[in-house]
Write a structure and sequence with these properties.
The complex is a heterotrimer. Chain A contains 21 helices and two strands. Chain A is mainly α. The relative contact order of chain A is 0.10. By secondary structure, chain B is mainly α. Chain B has a domain of about 90 residues: Helix Hairpins. Helix content of chain B is about 75%, strand content about 0%. The longest helix of chain B is centred in the C-terminal third of the chain and has 32 residues. Chain C has one domain. Helix content of chain C is about 75%, strand content about 5%. In chain C, about 60% of the residues are buried. Classes of the chains: A mainly alpha, B mainly alpha, C mainly alpha. Chains A and B meet through helix 7, helix 8 and helix 11 of A and helix 3, helix 4 and helix 5 of B.
Chain lengths: ~525, ~130, ~525
């Protein structure tokens, strides 16, 4: 904003700025076209919109790739007068969102047919939500971050309510909307305090101001202390921000919306909600807490213990609550809560190991979770809801391929070696141990041990799916699964991704390391 | 506009010297705005937690958003006085928040109507299909 | 070419077989071909595994052969590092031998979902070979965990009445243990990183660093890391009181599953103790030795006593495993050449004779569909072949001289007697020796009730004797029992140097924490 005032008023943005957001522009335009297509095409042809959405995601991915290869030596690039920052972090997360969006569109088509809600605006909404996520990954100003967060959240409210004749869907949307708006409000309140303390909405400037404010000798903002001691204000801001973000990533004690929203929402939306939305919220979390608040690490206002406690409770509650669930979507919702706890560990670690862990884990999580939901989607047929764990009974005889894929996704979610989930967890826990060794504080070790112990609990309910599919004699129903080529392709892609990352993770780790490094440097610069 | 108003509030009564309390009211400094915003915020949070009517909960959420708005405006004004070049950002932010809140209201009420059609209630206690 | 990549080929070949099976299942769906394909691949694997003997000759030194090392995950310094030495050589061959035997044993008894059964069997073989030949801790952990999943399915799908309970129990127990081991592995990685600059999962690098004193594990970390590893392995062994998963898993598992479980999976535990606990943390091993010896002896006696009162033949054999594996742990923690060689030998013996016992129990179960001892009696008349094999296998399990069990148990008891690692070693030897007597009691009593006497149930008189396939699959095991009992030299001489290297490391190392050796001496004086 600051730079905006100084700029030549006739030129608010340049062509270069537009190039930086080319993938988002493509998606936005295509989303609008998809809306028009819905009006023009007859109902039975509305699937064309889905293919169009897939093509546009492909175009966006291509433009993202060209953006990366053209500018990778110039990162970080600032655009729109510091409102956006394109760097490796942003590119990585955008890639994850695009993968998630493409898989979601692919698994949605047949499901919407079965539900009788095959409408083009569904795909338009998915595209708009993706745009919101992508801006979240590259936003570098509280304003742009807030707008993109709301863009994502608002489209998701609609998506969750998309099957409008379904009571559970209405109810889920209602709860999700109320708590989502509530958390946005709290987040916003935190942002306003942060703005007041730092005098800027730019994350980089906030980081600098806070760094200055926390140094007692240099009292540049000392005049602000007339009546307002800075530290309580920062503390309050950090707590409000954290609370808002904990809502978004469904961390305990702000997780109550997640099981309801996940269970009631249309299954493809649940898949997208638990992967794309969660990853985007983590991108936001990482951005704010490393770029703006990274300087607080190691000071009296260190937020790491707070995040660590929340992560520990989240892992505990998520895992133990999942054990008793009968509804598979609800079970995966609790598993998703516990996974949010694991990813938070990477933030607590706050080193390159932790960040690599976050990125790899979110990528793998996107693949395996959409895969798992894809299988649940295939169980939804006319007259059969199929979202109970026991609906999978006998899947191994009926559809051995699907059962095998589900088994691998579950084992990967549990973090068994040779699957992607293991690599992600390895880096998350490893980062924690590394940090503990660096700071010589034992609570990092205990936190890692805690997470590992609870991972064992998670085996119990992941294995339950496998048990139901393979070990029982009973077959839930003998109707064939609702499969479409797109769904199959999405499942196979997810499976291959999970296995490749599990068996040969080196290229992914290299890439993540290269692109994440500036973030690490930023986080540690204040130390 | 808001900027202008707050300018009036802050500078309009510099000459009068009635009493210190009256002074404080007429010359509100930053802390008073923050306290009011905090009160709004707390009322909003309590409303969300305590009330059971969806519409009232939604109004409470609007209170929270307005608490943030007030904060932004107050800080913006304060920064303007201290000569910070970034003072305008807070007011811009507020405009954005108002716009987004309007969109949010549209979607929220849409969901409420869809729910009401199916369930004929807007009391959260009665919306209990999804439970663990 | 073949020789250089032999270990990789051994690991991959069964998996390739599994993929071939899946492909065959997709395109032809001929049920009868599955077992042939599985048998073909496992037999080729066995034949190739014999090539290992070419480089690990008699009296060869402790170095690793057939080494392969390729970078796997560079970011965390993990290598795909394989190698075989005298210690792992026979375990690999035991694995490759038992897999075709179990495939043959399931020839007619696995009707349900045969394709999946053989696929899991072959994947399991890959994982098991991988465990014994991996020299990178992370790869080791990977195979260790990977062996869990197929076994879980084998118990869970083709098991008996309470198979789901047994499978889940098996999975959770072992997963808890191996996760703790993972923590230990990561801790070792960081200790190496802290002191030597770069972290490593490589067993040989770690061993060198520890031997040369470049890296020293502090007392408290060594304590926890040792426990983490030991916990994982002791669950797998299983050492009393962590054994409770074993009777359930064995009883419920299909015959082939029991054979593999007893023959190979349990050995992963003792192998891990020998290789990692003793090799990497010798001081701690010395410090913990008395506790392990006590637990092992409790296991020996407890297993034997509980086996005695079992009404179910298979459960009896399962508890006898607890007893036998107690001997192995006792031998390992005697820290004498005899004891440790005996332990290694006993691992092979147990694999062969308990494997044979499970096969025989499976064969009689196929005919009678019961395993209750009270349902049998006088089988010698209708089934002479079966009875002969059963008696020989039981005697080998008891440890009759000139059969393999004798050599192993004798060496272990001798080693315990000579041991200086803990006080009252003669008491330990005496008590452990009674375990042999108890074994004779429960085995002979069981034989008397099952094989001898008169026929109490009419159905037993009409039972058909073993067919050619069943005799054929038992013959190799029988020959091994005799050969290993009479002429143990080719086995022991190959493993000698590797075992001695570990033994020397345990007894000679002073390490950083010298207090441990003082403690050991105090123990001796007491």
């Amino acid at each position: 904003m600051f730079l905006l005032l100084q700029a030549n008023t006739t030129e608010l943005y340049s062509l270069r700025d537009l190039m930086l957001i080319a993938p988002e522009l493509i998606l936005t335009v295509c989303g609008c076209v998809a809306l028009v297509m819905e009006v023009v095409l007859p109902y039975r042809k509305s699937k064309w919109t889905a293919y169009f959405a897939l093509v546009s995601i492909g175009l966006a991915a291509a433009s993202l790739a060209s953006l990366y290869f053209a500018n990778r030596d110039l990162f970080p690039l600032d655009g729109f007068y510091g409102m956006l920052r394109i760097d490796g972090f942003a590119i990585l997360f955008k890639a994850i969102f695009l993968i998630g969006a493409a898989l979601t569109v692919a698994v949605s088509m047949r499901y919407l047919d079965v539900e009788g809600e095959q409408h083009g605006e569904y795909y338009a909404l998915v595209l708009f939500a993706t745009v919101g996520m992508m801006f979240l990954a590259c936003g570098f100003d509280l304003i742009s971050l807030y707008i993109s967060l709301e863009l994502m959240a608002l489209t998701f409210y609609v998506l969750v309510a998309f099957t409008k004749r379904e009571k559970r869907s209405n109810e889920a949307a209602m709860k999700y909307f109320l708590l989502g708006a509530f958390s946005s409000g709290i987040l916003l309140y935190g942002m306003s305090l942060l703005y007041g303390v730092a005098g800027s909405t730019n994350l980089g400037e906030i980081g600098r101001s806070i760094g200055v404010a926390l140094q007692p000798s240099v009292n540049e903002l000392g005049m602000m202390t007339s009546g307002i001691p800075l530290r309580p204000l920062i503390l309050l801001g950090v707590i409000a921000l954290s609370a808002g973000l904990f809502f978004k990533i469904s961390a305990v004690p702000f997780h109550m919306w997640a099981p309801d929203a996940y269970e009631g929402a249309p299954t493809p939306v649940t898949a997208f909600l638990s992967t794309g939305s969660k990853a985007a919220s983590f991108a936001l979390y990482l951005r704010i807490f490393t770029e703006a608040l990274g300087g607080l690490r190691g000071t009296a206002l260190d937020w790491a213990p707070l995040v660590a406690i929340v992560a520990a409770i989240t892992i505990l509650v998520g895992n133990w609550a999942a054990v008793t669930q009968e509804n598979s979507k609800r079970l995966l919702a609790y598993s998703s809560i516990s996974n949010a706890g694991y990813v938070l560990l990477g933030l607590v670690a706050g080193n390159s190991y932790g960040y690599i862990g976050i990125v790899i884990y979110l990528l793998v999580y996107t693949l395996m979770n959409i895969g798992a939901f894809g299988i649940i989607i295939s169980l939804r047929r006319r007259g059969i809801i199929g979202d109970n764990v026991n609906d999978m009974a006998g899947l191994a005889q009926k559809a051995p391929g699907m059962a095998a894929m589900m088994a691998i996704f579950m084992l990967s979610l549990g973090g068994l070696p040779a699957t992607g989930g293991f690599i992600g967890k390895y880096f998350l826990f490893g980062g924690l141990l590394q940090r503990g060794r660096l700071e010589e504080k034992s609570w990092y070790y205990w936190l890692a041990a805690w997470a590992i112990i609870n991972t064992v609990v998670s085996f119990y309910y992941y294995v339950r799916f496998i048990k139901v599919m393979y070990l029982g004699e009973r077959v839930a129903d003998d109707r064939p699964l609702a499969l479409s080529p797109a769904l199959r392709a999405a499942l196979v892609v997810s499976l291959i991704g999970v296995i490749i990352i599990g068996i040969y993770p080196q290229p992914f780790i290299d890439l993540a390391q290269k692109l994440i490094t500036p973030l690490t440097a930023g986080a540690l610069a204040f130390r | 506009m808001i900027n202008y108003l707050s300018l009036l509030i802050l500078q309009g009564a510099t000459d009068s010297r009635v009493s210190s309390a009256w002074d404080g009211i007429k010359q509100p400094d930053l802390s008073k705005f923050l306290v009011i915003a905090a009160l709004l915020f707390i009322i909003g949070v309590m409303g969300v937690l305590v009330r059971r009517n969806i519409i009232v909960i939604f109004m409470s959420i609007e209170l929270i958003l307005n608490a943030a708005n007030l904060n932004f405006i107050a800080f913006s004004r304060y920064l303007f006085n201290t000569g910070s070049p970034n003072a305008i950002a807070g007011q811009v932010f507020t405009v954005f928040i108002i716009v987004v809140a309007a969109a949010e209201a549209a979607i929220g009420l849409g969901i409420v109507i869809a729910l009401y059609r199916n369930r004929e209630t807007i009391w959260v206690d009665e919306i209990d299909l999804l439970k663990w | 070419m073949l020789q250089d990549n032999l270990l990789t080929i051994l690991i991959l070949l069964p998996t390739v077989g599994a993929l071939a099976l899946i492909g065959h299942g997709l395109f032809w769906k001929r049920e009868n071909d599955y077992r042939w394909i599985a048998l073909l691949f496992s037999v080729i694997t066995f034949a190739l595994s014999l090539l290992l003997l070419t480089r690990v000759g008699e009296n060869s030194d402790a170095a690793f052969r057939f080494e392969q090392k390729t970078l796997w995950i560079g970011a965390i310094g993990s290598y795909y590092h394989l190698g075989v030495d005298g210690m792992s050589l026979w375990l690999v061959i035991l694995t490759t031998l038992l897999v075709p035997v179990s495939i043959l044993s399931s020839w007619n008894s696995i009707k349900k979902r045969a394709l999946s059964f053989y696929v899991f069997m072959l994947i399991l073989e890959s994982a098991m070979i991988g465990v014994f030949v991996s020299l990178d801790l992370l790869i080791f952990y990977l195979f260790f965990e990977a062996s869990l999943v197929p076994m879980f399915f084998m118990i869970g799908i083709w098991g008996g009445e309470r198979r789901i309970y047994a499978a889940t129990k098996f999975f959770i127990y072992t997963a808890v243990g191996s996760l703790l081991m993972l923590v230990g592995i990561i801790a070792l990685y960081y200790i190496h990183q802290q002191q030597a600059g770069a972290g490593t999962f490589d067993y040989l690098t770690l061993l060198d660093a520890l031997k040369s004193g470049r890296v020293v594990i502090t007392e408290s970390s060594a304590f926890w890391i040792f426990l983490a590893f030991a916990f994982a392995f002791c669950i797998k062994v299983p050492l009393w009181p962590l054994h409770t998963w074993l009777p359930d898993a064995h009883t419920e598992a299909p015959t082939a599953g029991s054979v593999i479980l007893a023959g190979v999976l349990l050995k992963m535990g003792t192998y891990g103790l020998l290789r990692f606990n003793l090799g990497l943390m010798p001081e701690m091993a010395r410090r913990f030795a008395p506790y392990f010896v006590v637990l092992a002896i409790i296991g020996i006696i407890y297993g034997a006593l509980v086996a005695m009162v079992q009404p179910d033949v298979k459960r009896l054999v399962a508890y006898s495993s607890v007893s036998h594996m107690g001997f192995v742990v006792l031998g390992i923690f005697s820290f004498t050449e005899q004891g440790m060689q005996g332990a290694l030998y006993q691992m092979l013996n147990h694999g062969v004779s308990t494997g044979a016992l499970f096969l025989l129990v499976g064969m009689i179960y196929d005919r009678r569909h019961t395993r209750q001892i009270s349902d049998f009696g006088g089988l010698a008349t209708p089934m002479p072949w079966f009875s002969t094999f059963f008696v020989i296998a039981s005697l080998s399990s008891i440890g009759l001289p000139f059969l393999n069990g004798f050599v192993g148990e004798f060496l272990i008891l001798l080693g315990t007697w000579l041991s200086t690692g803990f006080s009252y070693n003669w008491v330990a030897t005496m008590i452990a020796a009674t375990g042999v007597i108890w074994a004779a009691v429960y085995m002979l009593w069981m034989l008397q009730r099952v094989v001898f006497g008169r026929i109490r149930h009419g159905e037993n008189a009409r039972l058909s004797d073993l067919n050619a396939r069943e005799v054929g699959l038992l013959i190799p095991l029988l020959i091994l029992m005799l050969v290993m009992g009479v002429y143990p030299r080719p086995f022991l001489s190959r493993s000698r140097e590797s075992v001695v290297a570990v033994q020397q490391r345990v007894t000679k190392s002073t390490g950083a924490a010298g207090s441990f050796s003082v403690e050991v001496q105090e123990n001796k004086q007491r």
